[in-house]
Every structure is written in structure tokens, then in C-alpha cells.
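Task 17 of the worksheet. Students: predict the tertiary structure of the chain below and write it out as C-alpha cells. Keep your answer in the requested format; marks are given for formatting as well as content.
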Amino acid sequence: MLLVFDTSMAACSAAAYDMMAGRVLAARFALMERGHADALAPMIKAVMDEAGLAFSDLTRIGVTLGPGTFTGVRTGIAMARGLALALDVKIASLDTLSAIAANAPADKRPLVIAADARRDEIYFRGATGEAPMVLPVAEAVRRLPEGRGFVLGTGSEALIAAASGDRLVRLSNGDMPDARNFAAHLAARLVEDAAPEPLYLRPPDAKPQHHQVPSADSVSIRQASVGEAQILAALHAECFDNAWSATEFAKLMAMPGALSFLAVEGGEPLAFLLARRAADEAEILSIGTRPFARRRGIAKKLMSHLAHELRQAGLAQLFIEVAADNAAARALYAEQDFAVTGRRKAYYEKPGGKREDAVVMMKALAR
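Model answer:
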């Protein structure tokens, strides 16, 4: 039995598929701009219950890799990894544009997929089924097949407008991946031993040509709920090699005295902070900023926000631990009035079995 799901774009879907009989047993689909992390687990449970399956019946997990939204892609992959590990099964993966192509009838060919990528660009999959690309609309037009073809996806209108004449017929079979439609494709794909990685067509440090890299002034700080543990885990994985799981984040965020915040710009999470308070002290457990948004004062804004909250609550001291060799982080904390108060020998485990000291730093919270 195969369980497949998608959270990569403005929808959430899941399906249970019988690989022997070649049919969908149960499926769910919902359009949503956000909230995938909260919606996915209940949707999966509903599908499994309707199909009459126990999780022990599953022999494979299927998931989409992107391109798509940062949070959505990470949410789906984190769930797939967690289920595969718990059930000791393999994962089959599919790019998002191929999943969208599965919505179209088989006779609608040649077919191209065009998904809106903003910045006057689209995520493009050509008629020959090549790997997805991110292209300016004009460049995508040059890659259209000869003669008349069909197009599907949220970038269809932009592509049709740029193409001459009536070269493209707009299909209405669904612009978002739908698990019930692409489940059969994942049933036929080979699984790999390696855990799937997100498919980002823009490198994480890419800077928009027509948009300024977010600054602290354009970023808002909000509290993060336990239900957003997968978002914090995804951010942590992009910031650090030793990524914490969503389960680990959820446990920490649910602890008494836990404080968690997200730095958000235009709906996109850029950084996070997780802290814990006890008595009249608090400790920053983890803080990270996505690589492309660094050196813009976002981490400073997060720490200032935390310090303000702690002062309002009457706390006196804020602590943080940092690897002794992390000069950049130590300099950042020093700028925020943290001073070295101690050292923990061989505290951090490094690659190759090596250990690294932790430097303990403290900030006095003046009232």
C-alpha cells in the first residue's frame, strides 16, 4: 500500500493507493494558502481511516519535492521522512510540475506546465517532460513545442499572453498537485535509499533582481505555535547541519516557559528563535536566519523582541551558548550586549567525532 501527499503549493492533498490493484482507495484535496503543517496530519488520518488501512499496512510513502513554497515543500518532506523512518519503508518522490501534469487527460498532448514563480518568471516543464526550470516568461515561449499545444498551471495565462496566436489551449483540470492523480506515477517510480531533498530552482542565497533583499524594517516578528513546529524544523535544517526534527521542536515548544518566535516578510518565514524561561532567567535554545536573508539585522530584531518580552515579565538575565569557533555568532551576540560568563569543554559534537567547546554568554536585562 502507498500513501502519497503534497503540500508544495497553495493546496494540501493526500491519497491512499493500492499498488497491486492499481486504484485509489481514498483521497482528500483542499485549497489553502497557508496552514499546511496543521492540515496535513488530520488529512492523512482521514484518508487512512476511509481506506480502512493501518499505518503498518503501508509499504511506501510518496511525496512531492517542489518547486513550490519554502514552508510547504519542507512540511511535506518532513512528514514523509518521519513516517518512513517510523514505519521502516522507502520514499518515492516526484517534482511538483510532473504532479500537476498528472491532472491532465492523456489525450491533451503536447502538454507544458507553467506555474507562477513571481518576479516575471514561471516554473516551466516542457512538452518532453524534462526537469522543471525557472525561466522568464519570454524564454519559456521559445521552448514551446511547434504547432498547437496545451498548458496547465497558475502561470498559464502569462505564458499564453506572451505566446503569439493561439498556440496554447488553457486546460482547467487543476493547477495544483492532487495526490489522487499522481499516486499512480509514484507507485511506478523507483524508490531510493537516500532521504528526499527539496527541489529549489533558485539557490537559497539568490537575490531577486527587482526586489531588495528583506531588511529588518520590512520584517515582522510574531509568536510561533506548537502547530508550527515543522516550520521551525525546516528553518533549522536550512540554517544548520545538525537539524532538529519537528518532533524535537514540538516537545521543546510545549515545555513550560517556552518562547518561540518567527521573523516573517511578506508571509515568508526568514528566521526563528526558540527560548526557555525559568525563575528570573531565560536561555536562547536556538536562533537562525535563512542564508539569503542574513546580514540584514533580522536576528538582532528577534533578540531585541525577546529581550523586550522578558523585561516586561520581570526577568533579570538572558543566556545563550555558542560554539567557540563560531566567531560570527559570538560577534553578533556581543553587539547585543552579551558577555562571556563561562565555557563548557567538549560540549558540541562535530563531524568526525570531534568535540567543540561551548562559550556561555549572558545579557543583563536592565529594567
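Marker's comment: Residues 4 and 62 are 4 Å apart (CA to CA). DSSP finds ten helices and 17 strands in the chain.
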